[in-house]
Amino acid sequence: MRILGLAQRAARLVFMAVALSGWAGLARAEPGNGFGLYLGAVHSSDSSHYGTGRGLSLTADAQMAINPDWSLNPYLEISYEHTDKPYAILNGAAGLQARRWIGDWFLGAQFLFHDELERSNGTISASTYGPGLGFAMGWESRSHWSIVLEMNGFEGQGLSLSTGNSRSDARILFGYHWY
User: Fold this and answer.
1) Contact, 118 vs 124, CB < 8 A?
2) What domains lie within the chain, and their CATH numbers?
3) pTM of the model
4) What is the pLDDT of residues 109-158, one digit of tens each?
5) What is the four-CA torsion angle of 93, 95, 98, 101, rounded to 10 degrees?
6) What does the pLDDT look like over 16-37, one tens digit per residue?
7) Of the residues 8, 55, 136, 152, which has the fewest C-beta atoms closer than 10 A?
8) How many CB atoms within 10 Å of residue 67?
């Protein structure tokens, strides 16, 4: 339920970005080949393991334009989260996102592989890992600034390579692409 609330708040921010894009008179941003960096908030949930996590996320991607409507974006992502338990979560992911561009907006599907480390008192106490599937939507201005909302589901849907993990997360990221 908390992820749904985060998604609703993120949708409001995306709506404000759309309103600002009309106000600023920004033109269509066609995908180009380039490199992007994003920073933002992550909210995760794993009811069987650590409860809820909140923290910061850093993402780097390499965008490869297929045509004016499609791009492929391999990416690396890392997050640091405080949890309801007395430990922190470090989560890293590598994935591939396929984006369908509609004007300044994009919708994307992604496949990723993640590794999650539990850190308590300076010591790594556990690690869970496995594949995940996700959805992304975002907006990019002509000046290459962007906002992205990602929602990912990891294990618990028959994708698990390690036991005891049913992580899902939502991220709202702000970034810039260099073309």
Assistant:
1) yes
2) 2-178 (2.40.160.20)
3) 0.79
4) 999 998 888 898 888 888 888 888 999 999 999 999 999 999 998 755 44
5) 40
6) 555 544 444 344 557 889 999 9
7) 8
8) 9
> Tokens 């998604």 correspond to what residue?
7
Q: How many residues does the chain have?
A: 179
pLDDT tens string 54-85: 999 999 999 999 999 999 999 999 999 999 88
What are the tokens at 71?
């791009």
- CB neighbourhood size of 167 (10 A): 25
Dihedral sign from CA coordinates of 136, 138, 140, 144:
negative
How far apart are the C-alpha atoms of 162 and 49, rounded to whole Å? 12
Secondary structure of the chain in the HEC alphabet? CHHHHHHHHHHHHHHHHHHHHHHHCCCCCCCCCEEEEEEEEEEEEECCCCEEEEEEEEEEEEEEEEECCEEEEEEEEEEEEEECCCCEEEEEEEEEEEEEEECCEEEEEEEEEEEEEEEECCEEEEEEEEEEEEEEEEEECCCCEEEEEEEEECCCCCCCCCCCCCCEEEEEEEEEEEC
